[in-house]
Fold:
Amino acid sequence: MALVVGVVVVGGYFLLPRQGLAQSLVYNAVGLVYAVVMVVGVRLFRPARPAMWYLFAAGQLMFVIGDVIWEIYEYVLHLSPYPSPADIFYLACYPLLAAGLVLLVRERHGRDLAGLIDAAILATGVGLVFGVFVLHPIAAEAGSVLERLIGTAYPAADVLLLALVARLFTGGGQRTVSTKLLGAAALLMLVADVVYAVLNQYSSYDGGNPLDALYLMSYVLWGVAALHPSMAPSTAPVDRARPTGLGRRRLVTLTASSLLAPALLFVPATMRHNSDLYAVAAGAIVLFLLVAARMSGFVRQVQRQAGQLEDLALHDDLTGLANRRHFLRRLSEALGAGRPAVVRINVNGFKNVNDQYGHTVGDRLLIALARKIEKAAGGGGLAARMSGDEFAVLVPDAAGAPAVLNRIARAFAVPTTAGDHALLMRVSIGYAEAGDTSEPLELLRRADIAVFAAADDGEPCRYTPELDATAHEEASLGADLRTALDAGDFRLVYQPIVELPHGRLIAVETLVRWTHPVRGPIGPDVFIPIAERTGVIVELGAWILRAACHQAATWRATLGPDAPGRISVNVSPRQLARPGLAEMVAAALADSGLPAGCLTIEVTETAVLDGGPSLQALHDLRALGVLIALDDFGTGHSSLTLLRTVPAQILKVDKSFIDEIATPGGSAVIAGALIEIANGLGMTAVAEGVETADQADRLDRLGYRLAQGYHFGRPAPELPVSGDIALEAGRVPVAG
Ligand code: C2E
Ligand code: CA
Ligand code: CA
Structure:
């Protein structure tokens, strides 16, 4: 709006009689009105730092006063003295505008040295040209010293303005509409000044010239800039973190500016005056120094960025610990200096945390674990994150390893806090000492083997050459497992679960068998843990589940009431923790037509110890109507609390307690206590690994109703058809 009015007024200005009083009055009125507009803008938008606007307004006012004085001389006194008091006001305008621009630049760009140098290069180059073609001729003109002084003061002030405007547009910060308008206003004024000076030099200028349009529009733009809402930036726009770079456009501008000095030497006019040559030489030196300063700043910036990149390349983003590359580098240094040890820490069940609580909690957990490990590493050790949930500590002197291991074990014995959750994480710890090897990768590999062999209870496992052999075997077996699945090398056998004391068949437990094409039969104790580690267990488990359900359904169809009432299937911790187990079970049941109540899923206590998804999976299974048995009960880190949280109906009392009751000096205390607990909680106890009639008899007297063991039947591909086991209708001994 203010802009439109301004343009209209400027247009109208030229309709008035040339050089008349009316034209002069309009001219001055425009200057005055837009100076006032600036003050109005300040009142309207209340910028945090209003000082610069007052300076601009004051500068403009000076100009108007100067004009008025000049006009009084011209129209009233009919004099045209030069210099006149008007010049004092004209010249006073420049320092005010310059001060305002300095404040503006500081507010918008902060103290950006690179931008400042760029502006100086631009101003020096252009100023030099200006000096040679405008300043010099004026100074060379005849006249008093004062006249020449004032004559050069104008262009010099313009160069100062130019530098500031250049500065405004060379800084890194963002430019608002208001800033652009201010820049345009200053630029218009500059251009007008230059044209004025040149015209004055080579012709004679009189008012009403189109040049006035430039001055007038400059007035208008100063005012309009103050009326744009962006004149009061809401956020601090100073972006100090980002130094001014060297873009293509900037490079071209700077190169052109710094080439102006030598280029001047090709202009014949400059060659005539010695003083001009000196000016060009001085300008060239200044430009050279400025460019050198700019380049050194640029080089420093590149070095700093390279440093930051290196830092990034050596550290893990999330935890800030050293990364694998950094770790290996430091390890090879340590191997050169002494006998270091490498500790590997693998966090188990981290994936579950991610699945259950989401990645934010997972990330926080990793950070908290990293801090623990860093602390345990101590001052001399280097803690690193090797991959997802795998960490390592470099102990520079192997003698310090026991202390570090101790601290790590203690740190992981208590829960780790991640957000609102306190999680007890199980870790495997392995370590290797530099002995006969000075190869960083080999030492790391040995620590890997050790951590692979370690249990997940935080008990450190030290590397020995024997571990290598086992690891090798595990690796080759692991590879064979996958092929075996495709080749159909797995079979299922079934072991009876019978009722005491008669031995009536109640249920069967499914057990998997593997006949390796070269090595022959391999026990599940050997290959199930490997299948778990390699992940094959998921596929293998699914196959077992489907096959067992089909077998049970077939028995029910063919044997009728003589079929075992239930079938047990073992589910490994990893299977339980994976999402989708309940869906898989439901599918196997639907496929085979086996009622859910005929299926028991056996899980170990440790599998559900960490709660989370595993516990949820059990609840989901329970909701299907499937029964849950706690396997090997009493051997894990079982707590009785577990019995309340886990929705299990069956307790399988571990063989070790059964063995005790009949061995000389052994005791029946635990077996006796466990049947009491089971009964008390409304659960069914199954005695595992019953091998003798004596054991069976004692168990019967202790109150056990169900038992399983070689005494009643070995695992076999078929159901037992003769012997002591009466094939009767399987009564489901558990309510529900
Ligand atoms: P488990 O679930 O505790 O299975 C019982 C183990 O004890 C079986 O060994 C069985 O053959 C053995 N056993 C039964 N009665 C007696 C006895 O009177 N005396 C002795 N000494 N042992 C007896 P197996 O088949 O070698 O299985 C070992 C473990 O492998 C199982 O322990 C189970 O944890 C795992 N496993 C076996 N089959 C599967 C399976 O299909 N899936 C999963 N995930 N794990 C399985
Ligand atoms: Ca079992
Ligand atoms: Ca068992």
Notes: The radius of gyration is 45 Å. Residues 631-632, 652, 688 surround calcium ion (ligand 3) (CB under 6 Å). The chain has a mean pLDDT of 84. The CA atoms of residues 205 and 547 lie 106 Å apart.
